[in-house]
Specification:
With 309 residues, the chain is of the alpha+beta class. 21% of the residues lie in helices and 29% in strands.
């Protein structure tokens, strides 16, 4: 029998909506509906991804019931304001679902389930449909324990933003075709930068956008903050120190906006803040790391990726 009593665990099952369900039911999009009817190549994966996701979600629920676990089911977009303290948060989706859940978690453990490994990277997800039962059993048996993943704290003009970043922050112009202009400051380094933006990533985000921009994969528990300037302007005297840099976790990074329409994007496109000229953003390590269930397979998989730029 498991050491942890499944009936005494506070379990939250956080799930995503498939894109097919979103485009046809939640926020109907006539053009996409027409493309589906035409069986156009641009939408040929939507039904397969939808079916894979629902099959995994059903399997996870059946497994929880078989283990005698009581759980609450919540759509990932409605987690804000819910009581997620001292819980096991099981996310079913991909990294986006896990990231959204992580924004609301302070003292709980997350177990990520990739519901569609054939089409979703799920770099932060320990399980899939076939391995979920094993990992849940290991957790209940207290054989599998969470590891603590550093997060980023962001302060904008003296006001701390309420959401800790697990993956990264992207600072860029609102228009992706426009030049991003800002000043980077840390310790004794200060430099005016012109580029297409700058990535600031914790270890969990080192396999995301910053890697595609030429960054480096780090271990999930690495304490450093990685900085990567995207496409530095060749005609401007950008400081090569800032093109790729690792900051000690005790050294805050300050970014001063020189853009009329600058933006800050946290952990993807859905959470953003305006960053107009003269605004100051300070980024440092958050005092509360995320408790995440990870495996050796996850660690090895991450280290196999390499920069593309």
């Amino acid at each position: 029998m498991p050491k942890a009593d499944p009936k005494k665990l506070n379990i939250i099952l956080a799930y995503k909506d498939s894109r097919l369900h979103t485009y046809t039911k939640v926020r109907p999009h006539q053009n996409i509906k027409d493309l589906l009817k035409q069986e156009d190549i641009s939408v040929d994966q939507l039904q397969k991804a939808h079916d894979a996701h629902l099959n995994t979600l059903k399997h996870v629920e059946n497994t929880l019931k078989n283990f005698g676990c009581d759980y609450k089911k919540a759509y990932r977009g409605r987690l804000a304001g819910a009581d997620l303290s001292n819980s096991l948060i099981i996310t079913v989706g991909g990294d986006g679902t896990l990231l959204e859940a992580s924004h609301q978690v302070k003292d709980s453990v997350i177990l990520g389930v990739n519901s569609d490994p054939g089409r979703s990277t799920g770099s932060l997800c320990i399980a899939n449909k076939h391995s979920f039962e094993d990992f849940l059993s290991l957790f209940l048996d207290e054989t599998l324990k969470p590891e603590f993943i550093p997060r980023l704290s962001l302060t904008l003009d003296g006001q701390r933003l309420p959401i800790p970043a697990l993956n990264d922050a992207l600072i860029a112009h609102k228009n992706p075709a426009a030049t991003s202009r800002f000043i980077l400051k840390a310790a004794d380094h200060t430099q005016d930068i012109r580029s297409s933006g700058v990535w600031i990533a914790g270890p969990a985000g080192s396999t995301g956008g910053i890697l595609s921009a030429g960054g480096h994969v780090t271990s999930l528990t690495d304490m450093h903050i990685q900085v990567r300037v995207r496409e530095p302007c060749a005609s401007h005297q950008n400081n090569s120190h800032w093109e790729a840099s690792f900051l000690n976790e005790k050294v805050p990074l300050e970014i001063v906006s020189r853009m009329r329409e600058g933006m800050i994007y946290i952990d993807g496109p859905h959470l953003s803040y305006e960053f107009p000229m003269g605004c100051r953003l300070t980024i440092k390590q958050h005092e509360s790391p995320l408790s995440l269930l990870i495996s050796d397979e996850m660690k090895n998989r991450r280290l196999q990726w390499s920069p593309t730029a």
